[in-house]
User: Fold this.
Amino acid sequence: MTQEWRAAPDAERRVRIAVWPEREAVEHAELWRALETLFPVEFDGAAPAAGAARVCFGGEAAAHGTRQPVFHASAGPGVLLAAGEMRFATSAAVPEAFRGLRLRDPGCRCVGVLPVARRHAVLATCDGHPVWTARHDAPLVVASALPLPRLAPGEPLRLHFRPAAWAALLPLLHWLRQVSEPEWQGPPPRASFVIDDPNLRRTRYGALDFHELATAARRENFHAAVATIPLDLAQASDAAVRVFRDNREHLSLLAHGNNHTGNELAEQDAAACAGLARQALRRMERFAERTGLVVERVMAAPHGACSATMASALAVAGFAAALISAGSLARWNPELAAEAALGMSPGWTLGGLPVLHRQGLRYVRTQAALAHFLGQPVIFTAHHGDCDGGLERLREAARECNAAASVRWMSPSAMSQSNYLLRAEREEVEVRMYSGQARVPLSREVRAASVTVHGLGRVRIDADRSGVVPLCEGWLLMVSRTAASLELEVLPAAQPLAARARVSPWARARRAMCEARDRMYPLFAAERPQVLD
Assistant:
């Protein structure tokens, strides 16, 4: 496990950070509020002498001679940029996710002038201009020439830490992590492709050939999970099943809705949600009994549409996680849109169901670096049309992702189980779970554990005892201690509703038409003109 990101804020251990001059505490008030939900810190517009650390704008005068950690922020733009290309040093002072990389930030158009102070190392340049320096002898002093964003009221932090605009926040985020919680450990960089829609009636679905996918995954060292529709699982060819069964290390299956009707997972009625979740799970179980091939209990929500009611029903039914982008979560669940730090954690919870962020294939290397920095698994979503003319797009994306960090490719289910943070203190450990299951390695000396399940609650347990403890209303935590690990599993306190779902003729007809369209895709793809760069 690595030490490349932080845990959720702990109200008992907040680090006070003074902001100077005081007007910057007001002008960047929304930014400070958002960061306080992400880190265990408290920003204060007090005098520079106050606080355990400082953020100073416009020079070093206020921080001269200090013995406290300081972040020198740019007072404003001074140099216009042409390309916005960031080049990172190979120094260990650079976050591992960005070390040695060259990445472009389209939103980086101007920077301040940053003189390189004595004993400061240049960690990054932008179009050749030094923009990030640091002195790592005590105290930690960092300077950035990248103007910090001013958030509008209610604006989420993730809009300023995405492939289109990310560099301005990176130095501050890394400094806050070092100042507030440097001791937390998390999982290594993880990645997977998720290809929506294909079924296993044949070894080819539209432009995607399963044999070719398995061969490419072995040669390029990647994992591809096919998100298949449970309605389609009643029919599967032996040849297609064999491809997945013989390539379990590189290929896997997960659920993609249930019938794949329009926004079916956005349902709000609890009984209807329970019926849909149970029906999808029954279809997956029958398929496994018939073929010996498991469909992982992970839900890739079609079009990102999923309500909290449906997520709760999926969790109670036995699903381990869902794959939904942070933007889609906020769109379909307005109550989450107000969370300034949504999308900035290793994962999050909707209705008791762990959720992992997934994204497209547009800025692969930058997306991978940002996800690794945040401790998120890299989940690239694709469709069979992305395999038009072969799998070069996936191959190239795998190379780009592997170049960004030392990545472990795995199935979405394995990603979810590894999605936790750990901090050890003598005979006690703290665990922050962004998953429904976790196997935490422990030394024999550990006697107690504090476990926080994101979005559900926190309990302190005797690490030597196994059993079930209440976590919060409606949820339990099952604890099992082995010689070398602590196994944790979140369980619903109540049985799922005894509801059944019916399949309308329209659902079957709609799915048949969509499949016919997809299978005819290669016939029409050959007629499209080739676009040359």
The longest strand covers residues 485-492. Confidence is low (pLDDT under 50) at residues 1-11, 526-533.
